[in-house]
TrEMBL record:
Pfam families, per the entry: ETF
GO molecular function per UniProt: electron transfer activity
Cofactors that this protein relies on: AMP
Protein origin, superkingdom: Bacteria
Protein name: Electron transfer flavoprotein small subunit
Length: 276
């Protein structure tokens, strides 16, 4: 039977999150935690493939105990099983350390049932890097296909998959072998409202939770802050937009004022290009 694993993350809702003006850091307490929107589409696509070809869908995440909420949301969408790795040793992980920890979790899931396909969202809305999915694929030594907006065909018996990858000027059709990893765009599907039976199942669902001691062959130097070479030196909110400028005087004077603004912006853009 086909076994698909979707990697997910609980993130703050960036539509309402605020920045702390004193520390220039995100005030995560100011926004509710939600399932990363791209990951919701990844889970939905996994469920659609399960319904079409048969099999099961598991989801896996790394996070603090409240991240159980994100797993339950995936059960609502139609996932069958949920796994979470949660431990202080994982705290402060960048994309490199995160991909390492999730790879170890996927290896443990594979011992329960071999994994045929891994699906990730294109990126998370709190990081916007898009690096974790390809990082997992590299560690597992399987093909990564990014920016996927359509799964055309999948055959477990013949061990291949055909997808459309989104490009700037169109798309390309790619065939690859299984197992592989996909990172998907939002337009790959529409996530429908959850069915009532799935909502009841999700409300009662208790995922499997592993600590760092439950994972095998772990190098603790590659976890959390110790395993994160990326350092965020500074974070700040964008400046508030300035108010519009009212042109005064007769038409000729207004034209001159407008030209001065255009020329000023042109010089600014020229300086920005020259500094690259």
């Amino acid at each position: 039977m086909l076994h698909i694993v979707a990697c997910i993350k609980q993130v703050p809702d960036t539509k309402v999150i605020k920045m702390n003006p004193k520390t220039n850091t995100m005030d995560r307490a100011s926004a509710p935690a939600i399932l990363n929107p791209y990951d919701a589409h990844a889970v939905e696509e996994a469920v659609r493939l399960k319904n079409k070809y048969g099999g099961t869908v598991s989801v896996v995440t790394m996070g603090p105990p409240p991240a159980v909420k994100a797993i339950r949301k995936c059960i609502e969408i139609g996932a069958d099983e949920g796994y979470m790795i949660s431990d202080r040793a994982f705290a402060g992980a960048d994309t490199l350390a995160t991909s390492y920890a999730l790879t170890k979790a996927i290896n443990k899931i594979s011992e329960i049932k071999p994994v045929d396909l891994i699906i990730c969202g294109k990126m998370t809305i709190d990081g916007d890097t898009g690096q974790v999915g390809p990082g997992i694929a590299r560690r597992l030594d399987i093909p990564p296909l990014t920016s996927v907006n359509k799964v055309v065909e999948m055959q477990k018996e013949d061990s291949y998959l055909v997808v459309h990858r989104k490009l700037e000027d169109g798309y390309e059709i790619v065939q690859t072998t299984l197992p592989c990893l996909l990172s998907v765009e939002k337009e790959i599907n529409e996530v429908p409202y959850s069915s009532f039976p799935n909502m009841l199942k999700a409300a009662r669902y208790q995922p499997v939770i592993w600590s760092v001691n439950d994972l095998e062959d772990i190098d603790r130097k590659q976890l959390g802050l110790k395993g994160s070479p990326t350092i965020v030196a500074k974070v700040w909110g964008p400046p508030k937009p300035e108010g519009g400028k009212i042109l005064e005087g007769n038409p000729d004077e207004q034209v001159q004022q407008l030209l001065s603004v255009v020329l000023e912006k042109k010089e600014l853009f020229a300086e920005m290009r020259g500094s690259k």
